[in-house]
Every structure is written in C-alpha cells, then in structure tokens.
C-alpha cells in the first residue's frame, strides 16, 4: 500500500490514470533513493538559501528527470517525493479524444484532486504504470467513478 501526497489536477492523465508522488523518506522508499538525488536535494536547498535560483532550478530539473519532486511541507520543510504513474484497476475509461473522455477525466479529477490517496498496487502494466486500487478518504475510488454512467468496468 502506497500513500500518495495530495493530488493536483495537472496529475490526472485521463479517466483511469494519474500521477502520484510518494514521500521518499518512508521505510520502503528511502533505501531506493540514489545518492546523487540526495545530494542534489541538499545542494538545491543550499542554493535556494543563498538565493542562487539558477543553480536551484537546474538541480530541480535533474531531480525531476530522475523521477522525483521536491515538495514544500509544513514549516517550510522540503519533502522529496518519488513519482509513480498509476492506472486504476478494473476501469477502462475512454481516452481523452474519445466520446466522454474529457468527462471521465473531469470526474476522476473531482474525485481525487487535493486529496491524499492510499493505493494498493497489484502489478505493473506494459507501459510501466502501476495498476492498483485507489482509496480516497477511506472509500474505494473505482466504485463512484464507474457509477457515473460513462465508464465501463474493464473485463479481461
């Protein structure tokens, strides 16, 4: 089970996919953070403190290219978060360019935007996304999302 930070609207890809960021300081994530990324985060913090924003921005791009993001936490504390692409298990929403695609994306956005999610991961698909169940505020997210009338349940 992975616990994601708050989801932004820009992180919703379509009606059945989203990008989440997991706090990399947890026991499952921390051992896998490359030393180069740890060093880049530290140097970025120092660069920002000395108002060297060009260096800080360059380091931020390096961190992002490695699949991480530095988020601002409470008390101006930096949080290193790992990026994961998620596909909702059991949902086959229309693509954005298809009929009801934009509506499916908007419904998923309404459901998860600004909320922290718990994600039960089952496997990785052929595109490198993690396939899993999403729980939002303790509720199984796939049920209300599929009950809107334009999302068929995926049958394999």
Verbal overview:
With 156 residues, the chain is α+β, with helices and mostly antiparallel strands. It has two domains: 2-20 and 86-146, OB fold (Dihydrolipoamide Acetyltransferase, E2P) (Beta Barrel); 30-81, no CATH class. The chain has helices at 35-49, 53-65, 101-112, 142-146; strands at 2-4, 12-14, 17-23, 68-72, 78-88, 117-124, 130-136, 139-140. Strands 1, 2, 3, 4, 5, 6, 7 and 8 form an eight-stranded mixed beta sheet that branches. α1 (35-49) packs antiparallel against α2. The chain is elongated. The mean pLDDT is 86. Residues 12-156 form the TNase-like domain. It comes from Papaver atlanticum.
Number of E-state strands: 8
Tally of individual helices: 4
| Overall 3D shape | elongated
Mean pLDDT: 86
For this structure, the quaternary state is: single chain
Helix- and strand-based class? alpha+beta
Kindly summarize this structure in a few lines.
Residues 12-156 form the TNase-like domain. This protein is of the alpha+beta class and 156 residues long.
List the helices and strands and how they pair.
Blueprint: E1 2-4, E2 12-14, E3 17-23, H1 35-49, H2 53-65, E4 68-72, E5 78-88, H3 101-112, E6 117-124, E7 130-136, E8 139-140, H4 142-146
Parallel strand pairs: 5-7
Antiparallel strand pairs: 1-6, 2-3, 3-5, 4-5, 6-7, 7-8
Helix pairs in contact: 1-2
Pfam family, one: SNase
GO biological process, one term: tRNA aminoacylation for protein translation
GO molecular function: aminoacyl-tRNA ligase activity; ATP binding; endonuclease activity; hydrolase activity
């Amino acid at each position: 089970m992975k616990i994601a930070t708050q989801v932004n609207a820009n992180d919703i890809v379509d009606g059945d996919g989203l990008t989440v960021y997991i706090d990399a300081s947890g026991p499952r994530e921390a051992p896998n953070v490359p030393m180069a990324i740890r060093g880049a985060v530290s140097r970025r913090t120092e660069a920002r403190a000395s108002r060297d924003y060009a260096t800080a921005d360059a380091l931020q791009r390096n961190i992002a290219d490695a699949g991480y993001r530095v988020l601002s936490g409470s008390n101006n504390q930096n949080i290193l978060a790992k990026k994961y692409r998620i596909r909702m298990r059991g949902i086959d929403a229309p693509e954005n360019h298809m009929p009801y695609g934009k509506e499916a994306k908007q419904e998923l956005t309404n459901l998860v935007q600004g909320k922290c999610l718990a994600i039960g991961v089952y496997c990785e698909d052929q595109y490198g996304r993690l396939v899993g169940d999403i729980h939002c505020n303790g509720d199984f997210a796939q049920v209300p999302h599929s009950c809107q009338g334009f999302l068929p349940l995926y049958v394999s």
